[in-house]
Design brief:
Length: 105
């Protein structure tokens, strides 16, 4: 534990007041702050691009879902129509077969 404190105190800056900071150090700090600001602005721009791209994907997904629902509704309507025609036809065929079996056997 004491080693940690020793190494930690060793890391502490030796400058304790503003009057001891050199102009070159101030320039370095200024440059770092400018880089931080620029990087944050770049990050914000990238985030805005990603948001726009995500919105495009969301819009495309919504239209695909709407199209899918429309096709499903259309398929169900066709199935109902076919069922209304096919079931009576199948029943008529079964009745005809039963009639023929009863009549000839």
């Amino acid at each position: 534990m004491q080693e940690h404190l020793i190494s930690h105190t060793h890391i502490q800056p030796e400058v304790t007041s503003r009057s001891h900071i050199k102009m070159s150090e101030l320039e370095d700090i200024k440059q770092l702050l400018i880089e931080l600001r620029d990087n944050q602005q770049l990050s914000i721009e990238k985030q805005e691009e990603h948001i726009a791209l995500t919105q495009q994907h969301l819009d495309r997904a919504k239209s695909q879902v709407e199209e899918s629902i429309g096709l499903q509704r259309e398929a169900i309507a066709k199935q109902r129509t076919i069922t209304k025609i096919a079931v009576p036809g199948i029943l008529a065929c079964i009745l005809a077969i039963v009639y023929l079996i009863v009549r000839y056997f």
